[in-house]
Amino acid sequence: MTDQQPVTRAPDRSTLRLALVVGGLVLAVLLGFGLGRLNADGATTGSPSLAADHTDPPGIGPHSHGTTTGTDQGAATEPGGLSVSSAGLTLAPLAPLATEFAAGRPGQLRFQVRDVQRQPVTRFAVVHDKPMHLIVVRRDLTGYQHLHPTMAADGTWSVPLTLAQPGVWRAYADFTVVAGNGAQTAVTLGTDLVAPGGYQPRPLPGPATSTTVDGFTVGYQGTPQGGATVPLTFRVDGAGGAAPLERYLGAYGHLVALREGDLGYLHVHPEPELVDGQVKFWLTTPGPGRYRLFLDFQVGTDVHTAEFTLDVP
Predict the structure, then answer these.
(1) Which of 65, 143, 157, 266 is the most exposed place for a label (fewest CB within 10 A)?
(2) How far does CA 305 lie from the centroid of its chain?
(3) Is 146 exposed, middle or buried, given 0-12, 13-18 or 19+ CB atoms closer than 10 A?
């Protein structure tokens, strides 16, 4: 008798096709897991406040920040900064000092932005050269300050702050958070600060389209209307004519509008280039009322702020 050798049969086509499909699915899952871990690890290394540059949706040019919906839109329909919480985020001032300051004395404001689990947020997009813009103003709309806090690794923001006069002040944290999937959400949160002492509110100056600041004459053209988007064009003149404007925080001007009463906040971005030597904004006021406009501009490396009172019918 002869030994019989085992017969090896090649797998049929259907079996081979099934094996290839299953193998491909396993490989895709393993690759996806590896990339997910890589992205997650990358999000926690380096400077967390420089997680991403701010990107706007296609077609969005000059626009406003500060809507209560937490979005970044071409035309804001509601002002921001009216609440300490919005879009699942909360502004949490931290001790020491927290929200009370001695009038006229240098202090430091410390705060965190926390999510719905009350955990500090550490991923912010860089918008106009900074991951956080902090606007501080007294409730009578005097003492305007535009500050840029720095963030520690644990998500704690800090900035030197002096409240020059007694009274209740409003602080607006204007920022854009970056989600794990890369989505960006612009939010403005507000909180009150207190400088104890005799508070003497000042009445707003009357409406005017021209003012002077630090030797410059600043005027604007345009007629805002409630609920409508209209252009506002600002011209800055020095002793010899049109001032040589420089870029400040990536733009030729920054415009903040605050509504008298509830202090609703709008931060309006301009056209990327000068228009006939002037700074052009597109402003959407949410409704009738009196607003205070604050225009930041830079000449000779110095930043100046022009202020206007605006009545919107």
Answers:
(1) 143
(2) 19
(3) buried
Partners of 254 in beta bridges: 296
Under DSSP, is residue 74 helix (H, G, I), strand (E, B) or coil? coil
The answer to whether residues 152 and 71 touch, using CB atoms and an 8 Å cutoff, is no
Contact 221, 279 (CB under 8 A): no
Average pLDDT over residues 197-217: 96
Q: How far apart are CA 225 and CA 159, in angstroms?
A: 36
Q: Which two tokens stand for residue 37?
A: 């871990």
CB 235 within 8 A of CB 253: no
Which pLDDT tens digit goes with each residue over 275-288? 999 999 999 998 89
**Amino acid identity, position 39:** N
Q: pTM here? A: 0.78
79 CB-near residues (< 8 Å, 6+ apart): 66, 67, 68, 259, 262, 264, 265, 266, 286
Can you tell me the mean pLDDT for 102-128? 96
**pLDDT band with cut points at 50, 70 and 90 for residue 78:** confident
Q: Are 236 and 297 in contact (CB under 8 A)?
A: yes
Identify the residue whose tokens are 């920054």: 254
Best CA proximity match to 195, nearest among 147, 156, 143, 151 = 143
